[in-house]
Amino acid sequence: MSLTNSSDEEPLKDSAGNFLTRKLNRERHGVGQKSIKRAVEKYGGNIEQQYDKETCLFHTSILF
Question: Which parts of 7-54 are beta strand (E)?
């Protein structure tokens, strides 16, 4: 599965390299990314995420 999303700003990352939400109420946002990552890993898949500064596109690839 491949997903692409536009973003004018480069995504924030934590010290472990995980992407963080820019929304104000962080306790209620960003949960989806973590849930997807856990599910992919649980079923032996691989998730790759990257941001392309030139095209301002955020890419997510999930492989099983």
Answer: 12-13, 19-20, 46-52
